[in-house]
Amino acid sequence: MTSSRQDASRRGATLITGCGSGIGAATAVTLAAAGHRVVASVHSFHRMSELAERSAEAGVELDVRELDVTDAAATAACVADVAAAYGSLRAVVSNAGVNRFDTFERETPEDYRRLFEVNVFGPVALIRQAMPFLRASGGRVVAVGSIGGVVGLPFQHAYSGSKFALEGVLESLAPVARRLGVAVSVVEPGPTATGLGGIGDRERLDAESGPYREALRQYTANAARVLPGLPSRQPADAVAAVIRDVLAARDPDFRYATSPAGAAFLARKLPDVSGRATADLIESWLEAPAEPRGTQFSRNANPPNRPGSGPIT
Ligand SMILES: NC(=O)c1ccc[n+]([C@@H]2O[C@H](COP(=O)([O-])OP(=O)(O)OC[C@H]3O[C@@H](n4cnc5c(N)ncnc54)[C@H](OP(=O)(O)O)[C@@H]3O)[C@@H](O)[C@H]2O)c1
């Protein structure tokens, strides 16, 4: 990294959610090591030992703050405080998330609400609060989605539903935000070696799964080995490195797999894995039609305030 790029990244802060453990902890440390001024928000100061260990090991400095992403007022205050303390907000990484693994008939509407609060409404509130600051800085949004946000995975109805919802919101926002100078991307990890909860009380689930039991047993047994087509488990650091690279990209795509196998899995469903071609088409809807009228819209290659002029390293 050149020193001028390093200097650029030192203006303003990068705010990450859910940094107490897993991908969030790895991302906080990776971005700090890459020169970001990182505000690492954790759900609770009582559950951040992984972050403390990782940051001590790497010898990086983090500004750790407590934030429950389901608390909209606290989220608004946190975003404003960070922007004021650091002069600007350069990027937001929405990482906090919860999982649930269950049979469809055991899941209650409350289970769906709980997951959507953390995985959808929290991130949407965060990004909405951050947008004015990101417009001012020409900043970035990166949300941690999931391959389960593109392909519905068995026994993860609420989780996949929430990740689909988040991705839909952000896919809708991305082309418009791009014209306002803010790049919006979703990083889609496959299985990652973290403590992301889900199965809970295995024995009880097995006992109560009724007609779903056989499929559930087979699925979990197969998943413990290898599921054909599904990428194998990767370390949280590998996902963090992808997030770092997305933030450093001059003109980031909308969607990123976190491994070649993850990209191949997404390509089973998506002809446009990166979302680039779709975003370009949709962006053309936001422009004046090319002359003469009635011919195909052409994409303005250099819209005003287009993100990418100041990569975040
Ligand atoms: N692990 C995977 O296989 C995988 C695959 C695809 C996508 N992802 C996504 O990656 C992201 C990070 O998950 P992870 O795998 O790193 O698991 P993780 O270690 O459990 O990390 C999730 C973090 O989110 C925090 N969190 C939960 N509820 C929160 C809330 N209301 N407010 C703020 N923070 C909250 C958790 O804090 P507490 O523990 O203190 O509640 C935890 O630190 C999630 O969005 C997840 O969906 C994970």
TrEMBL record:
Residues 12-192 form the Ketoreductase domain. Keywords: NADP, Oxidoreductase. It comes from Actinomadura rugatobispora. This is SDR family NAD(P)-dependent oxidoreductase. Belongs to the short-chain dehydrogenases/reductases (SDR) family. Pfam families: adh_short (PF00106). Residues 288-313 are annotated as: Disordered.
